[in-house]
């Protein structure tokens, strides 16, 4: 059977020549990977982190790895793709999702939440340097955890008061909390440890180093 659906790109793995395994999140299938033909007619730019694609999924009851075809961008995300800082954030956000949300997991509301997060980042013109911190806190809530000061204290170190500000601030207020790059990185690391504890998994986020370097001068 064939179904048309939107897919959020989390990652991809090369598979044979002109084929990849595309790791995605969707409303219909949750966290699932698909086999995709990636030739000249399917540019690799389609598979940038957190791209939102429209695709035809061919369901095959005889295989766990279904095919996705007729791929196209559902949204252009020019506000992200034309900004190196936002692009780095999408690398970080997609890696967190890829390592936190397990294959086969279907968390109600997660796809819609992720799509809103992507569209919001795309639309922001300024004051988005704290966006990934707010993203981590909201991800914890979306996955069913309830981060509060007591819950975060074992992971927060000297940043507990700042995290308290994020918990009590509106979105626009959270974007204006004054932080330098080093402090943002430390807070992000503490929230990743919090997610590791609650998901009982190891979340090794390599792209956090990229954010660290970029936001030292931002």
Global geometry: globular
CATH class of the largest domain: Mainly Alpha
Main sheet strand line-up = 1-2-3-5-4
Give the strand tally.
Answer: 5
How much helix, percentage-wise, in residues? 40-55%
The averaged pLDDT comes out at 91
Strand content: 15-25%
Question: Could you characterize what this model shows?
Answer:
The protein has 2 domains: 2-73, Beta Barrel (OB fold (Dihydrolipoamide Acetyltransferase, E2P)), CATH 2.40.50; 78-215, de novo design (two linked rop proteins) (Up-down Bundle). It is 44% helix and 20% strand. It contains 9 helices and 5 strands; from the N terminus they run βββββααααααααα. A 5-stranded mixed barrel has the order 1-2-3-5-4. The radius of gyration is 18 Å and the shape is globular.
Short précis:
With 218 residues, the protein is of the alpha+beta class.
SSE layout:
Blueprint: E1 2-14, E2 19-26, E3 30-37, E4 52-58, E5 66-73, H1 78-81, H2 84-100, H3 110-123, H4 131-142, H5 149-156, H6 160-168, H7 171-175, H8 181-199, H9 208-215
Parallel strand pairs: 3-5
Antiparallel strand pairs: 1-2, 1-4, 2-3, 4-5
Q: Keywords for this structure?
A:
218 residues; alpha+beta; OB fold (Dihydrolipoamide Acetyltransferase, E2P); de novo design (two linked rop proteins); 2 domains; 5-stranded mixed β-barrel; 9 helices
């Amino acid at each position: 059977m064939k179904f048309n659906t939107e897919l959020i790109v989390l990652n991809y793995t090369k598979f044979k020549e002109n084929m990849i395994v595309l790791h995605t999140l969707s409303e219909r299938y949750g966290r699932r990977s698909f086999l995709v033909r990636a030739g000249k007619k399917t540019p690799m730019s389609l598979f940038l982190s957190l791209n939102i694609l429209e695709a035809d999924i061919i369901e095959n009851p005889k295989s766990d790895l279904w095919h996705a075809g007729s791929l196209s961008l559902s949204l252009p995300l020019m506000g992200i793709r034309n900004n190196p800082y936002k692009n780095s954030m999408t690398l970080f956000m997609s890696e967190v999702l890829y390592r936190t949300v397990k294959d086969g997991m279907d968390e109600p509301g997660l796809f819609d939440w992720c799509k809103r997060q992507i569209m919001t980042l795309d639309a922001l013109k300024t004051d988005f340097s704290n966006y990934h911190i707010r993203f981590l806190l909201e991800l914890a809530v979306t996955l069913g955890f309830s981060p509060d000061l007591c819950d975060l204290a074992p992971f927060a170190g000297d940043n507990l008061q700042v995290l308290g500000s994020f918990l009590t601030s509106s979105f626009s207020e959270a974007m204006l909390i004054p932080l330098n790059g080093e402090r943002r990185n430390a807070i992000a690391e503490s929230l990743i440890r919090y997610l590791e504890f609650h998901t009982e998994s190891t979340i090794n986020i390599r792209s956090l180093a990229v954010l660290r370097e970029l936001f030292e001068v931002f």
